[in-house]
Write a structure and sequence with these properties.
With 194 residues, this protein is α+β, with helices and mostly antiparallel strands. Strands 1, 2, 3, 4, 5, 6, 7, 8, 9 and 10 form a 10-stranded antiparallel sheet that branches. It has 3 helices and 10 strands; from the N terminus they run αβαββββββββαβ. The longest helix has 18 residues.
Length: 194
């Protein structure tokens, strides 16, 4: 009996440890780090930074920009890359320019190395009478391999109203976006071992 309880506790602890820390969320900086970034790059405030820890090392990352069409997410832009050896921790930096309606991003691994796109991705839909907004991943989210995780939503609405959904909620429930939306995009990352 005692051996069985010990095995159950060990299995529960192992399961808790395997899931522990497998997440992505906003990076937290000390005041000194923030000041140093502003000195080195004055436009650093335009960039948002996320930190991630994977449940196990991965060797591939896919970044996808989805476009909502007829109530379903369609791939608009997909890029990614593979690297030698597994990576478990790193950061994703991204910037959205709502005036030009563009998105750019890069991936950096702890210990060096990374991936970045060539230039900004231009999103169609910039037209008069449409107000664009972006909702960002504001809290830590669980991260699993081979599952896309929504990092941000970019949406344009006609009129004066602005409805902003949490990226995970909006990506999981595209039916939330009604006829007042002129365009909706989601940006996701997916890590895997291909």
């Amino acid at each position: 009996m005692r051996k069985g309880i010990t095995l159950l506790l060990a299995a529960a602890l192992l399961a808790a440890l395997q899931g522990c820390g497998a997440a992505i969320g906003p990076a937290v900086f000390t005041e000194e780090e923030s000041l140093a970034m502003e000195l080195v790059e004055p436009e650093a405030d335009d960039w948002k930074l996320l930190e991630f820890t994977l449940p196990e090392p991965a060797d591939t990352a896919y970044f996808t920009v989805w476009r909502l069409e007829d109530g379903k997410w369609q791939t608009f832009h997909r890029s990614g890359g593979s690297w030698y050896g597994g990576v478990k921790d790193g950061r994703i930096a991204y910037r959205v320019d709502l005036e030009r309606l563009t998105l750019e991003f890069s991936l950096q691994f702890d210990g060096g190395g990374g991936y970045s796109i060539e230039g900004p991705i231009e999103l169609p839909g910039l037209e008069p009478g449409v107000g664009w907004g972006v909702s960002l991943l504001a809290v830590e989210e669980e991260l699993a391999l081979d599952e896309p995780c929504a990092l941000l939503l970019i949406s344009g609405e006609r009129g004066d109203s602005r409805t902003m959904y949490d990226p995970g909620v909006g990506f999981a429930q595209p039916e939330l976006f009604g006829e007042s939306f002129a365009g909706v995009y989601a940006f996701t990352v997916e890590f895997s071992n291909d």
